[in-house]
Amino acid sequence: MTTHRIRVGIDVGGTFTDAVAVDAATLELLGQVKVPTSHHHEDGVAHGIVEALDRLLQQTGHAPQDIAFLAHGTTQATNALLEGDVATVGLIGIGAGPGAALTRRLSALRKLELTPGKRLPLAYAHVADPSDAGAVRAAVDALVRDGAHVLVASEPFSVDRPEGEAAVLEAARAHGLPMTAAHEITSLYGLHKRTRTAVVNAAILPRMLATADLVDASVTKAGVGAPLMVMRCDGGVMSLEEMRRRPLLTVLSGPAAGVAGALMQERISEGVFLETGGTSTDISVVRRGKVAVRHATVLGRTSYLNALDVRTVGVGGGSMVRIGEGRITGVGPRSAHIAGLPYACYATLDDLRDAVVTTVRPMDGDPADYAVLDAAGGRYAVTMTCAANALGRVPEGDFARCDQEVAKAAVAPLAARLGVDVATAAARILDAGTAQVRTVVDAMIREYRLDKDTAVLVGGGGGAASVTPHLAAAGAMEGRIARHNEVISPIGVALALVREQVERIIPGAGQEQILAVRAEAEAAVIAQGAAADGVEVEVTVDPQTSTVRAVATGATELRTQDRAHRADEAERLRTAAASLRTDPSAVRKLAGTAAHTVYGAEARRRFRATRRPVRVVDADGVVRLHVADAHVESTTVGRAGDVLAAQVRETTSYGDGGVRAPAVRLLLGSRIADLSGVLDPEPLLALARSELRDRPADEPVVAVLEVRT
Questions:
Q1: pLDDT at residue 77 above 50?
Q2: What is the C-alpha to C-alpha distance for residues 164 and 530, in angstroms, rounded to an integer?
Q3: CA Rg value for the chain
Q4: H helices of 593-694, where?
């Protein structure tokens, strides 16, 4: 029996459930298993989760009591919406006078289309006075007669005055139905969008509650003492209790798990993550060490669901080649999996004997231009994976690796058909496939203003080698395949931090109001099990929309990683120099704490002021922050208040665009406190004081200030 505790991540996919065990101290992968997802078992997906957990513990020699953290990601909510497998929602609109007209219009939400020809099942009832318990009970009775299995209460301005929605739910409680208030799902204004988000959440609530209860009971029965966490669609995890309240947060969590794995395991600070499966590639952005998140589109409409900004391209490792008029005309969107064909590169040389290229129609209605090989061993698909292996793009030990000679033999008949050699044909296949991905990657780099000189492409998923290496080479960018890329999603689940986001619309928000939103987010993650001493909170104030947003993250235990590797000063300097695109001799060490070292260089520009780019490198030799032009100030907690106040005064700009304080990051202990989302100097300094509170006066602090132009 081992002494190290483990973190377990389980990713429930449509076909397979993958589970991994990660050492809780070193974060190294200890074991991985794959079992069929148990959709049709009487216990549903819970059975597959427990089966995967049992096999994982046997493989690694651990007991259930050794599990320090257990989380799972699931596609169940996404699939329920895609398949239209949802409960009938009983919507109670609240209001009298003009307010009644607004809420009665909400009955139109029954027109939301789940699948072609199938609309959201919704029954509507109206209550003029939420304090009239008899009227509420009568409304609920009518909704139940109309088939409602879950209730939603919605009232105009409930974000500011939630008492009406709360009174309706209290009066309806005796019916024993799952229920929610619109203001509990989001605190943003916009009655229709807020209610639509709450209604979609409610539609999947009964099914998700049943699954949550089964999984919780099964895991507890297995002897696991660690609380069960669930993957969110924004890259964090939440407690099971929070999932029971807001299951909509699990929609689109599949891609989020992969990028969370890349962020935590690969330590990306700036770049693009591409998770490539057999049929498609999910593309997402990491900017300044954080995943890019936006309000998601659900059922064709924008929502208040904060989800990973992921763009999907129909090209993956199994994508089939299309030909016409003596050339390659495209790759995908059909894959060998959809066509029911094996990859040619995984055959044997004998199987591929006497191969002849022909074209097929993989599905009814498809064009008949998809290339296949009819050979001695049967019919095979020529895929992106075949081309990548033929060119030697797939590294040793990779999930998609095969015998290169077989891969060349798989591409050779197509090359002959095109009148070129094998290498040229393979390159053209990859060019055609990655061109679609490159268009999206370039667009996201522009949209998020990534520095293309320092951004890195990281590939995950079993098909990573078919896309990322060739794309990086074609775009002259740094690219690599993530370690254990085939299980990057469950690794992301195992390593994810508890996350909560609180949003409030507060016109003219003062520092007390901003600090209150920050405190609410911090308290929320602590309530879900995050260790209080390690919680980080990023606050953003958008003056155009008056939105105050606080994103809190924290681990369920304070992780002290005893990694075998710690970068020495020379290695950290080389890392910084490579990121700065300069010689190490031109790089200076500007400041440091026990966990981070700050390096800088001067970039002289003709006819413009000298730029001072900065890189912050952690103890593992990973760039955690890079700023194009910054001022660095070393101080202590005791002096930081006065020092920061002086620096902020000097670097705040005033103009037609309003007040613009510098973007401030504080290096404190083992973390980087990001205060860059606040433009007003007074709230900025108040947030800085809250970060410094309760820390020793002599503790070193490094401030990195980026002047906004």
A1: yes
A2: 32
A3: 27
A4: 637-651, 681-692
Q: How many Å apart are CA 494 and CA 229, to the nearest integer?
A: 10
CA 467 to chain CA centroid, Å, is: 20
Cα–Cα distance, 332 to 314 (Å, whole number): 6
Q: Could you give the percent of the chain with pLDDT greater than 70?
A: 97
* First-to-final CA distance of the chain: 58
- Please report the sign of the dihedral spanned by the C-alpha atoms of residue 275, residue 280, residue 281, residue 283: negative
The torsion angle over the Cα atoms of residues 439, 443, 446 and 450, rounded to 10 degrees, is: -80
329: three-class secondary structure by DSSP: strand
Distance CA 120, CA 115 (A): 9
CB 538 within 8 A of CB 550: yes
The Cα 591–Cα 700 span in angstroms is 10
Amino acid type, 359: T
Of the candidates 314, 263, 302, which has an alpha carbon nearest to the alpha carbon of residue 286? Answer: 263
Q: State residue 267's pLDDT score.
A: 77
* Spatial CA neighbour of 672 closest among 630, 611, 610: 630
Q: Whose CA is closest to 9, among 488, 401, 465, 419?
A: 488
Q: Which two tokens stand for residue 489?
A: 């999603």
- Which sign does the torsion angle of CA 407, 412, 417, 423 carry? positive
Q: Name the amino acid, one letter, at 352.
A: L
Token duo for residue 659: 């007040």
Angle between helix axes 637-651 and 681-692 (nearest 10 degrees) is 160
Specify the pLDDT at position 557. 64
Distance CA 393, CA 470 (A): 7
Q: Which residues contact 190 (CB under 8 A, 6 or more apart)?
A: 304
- Please name the helix (run of DSSP H) or strand (run of DSSP E) that holds residue 271, with its range, or none: strand 270-276
Burial of 508 per CB tally in 10 Å (0-12, 13-18, 19+): exposed
For range 32-52, the mean pLDDT: 83
Q: How far apart are CA 170 and CA 177, in angstroms?
A: 12
User: What is the tens place of the pLDDT at every residue in 342-397?
Assistant: 999 999 999 999 999 999 999 888 899 999 999 999 999 999 999 999 999 999 98
Predicted confidence (pLDDT) at residue 466 exceeds the cutoff of 90: yes
Write b or e for each residue in 156-182: b if 16 or more Cβ atoms lie within 10 A of its Cβ, otherwise e: bebbeebebbbbbbebbeeeebbbbbb
Nearest to residue 592, comparing CAs of 563, 624, 562? 624
Distance CA 276, CA 269 (A): 20
- Name the pLDDT band for 137 (thresholds 50, 70, 90): very high
Token pair for 56? 């994982």
**Residue bearing tokens 């022909």:** 358
**Strands 179-181, 150-154: pairing kind:** parallel
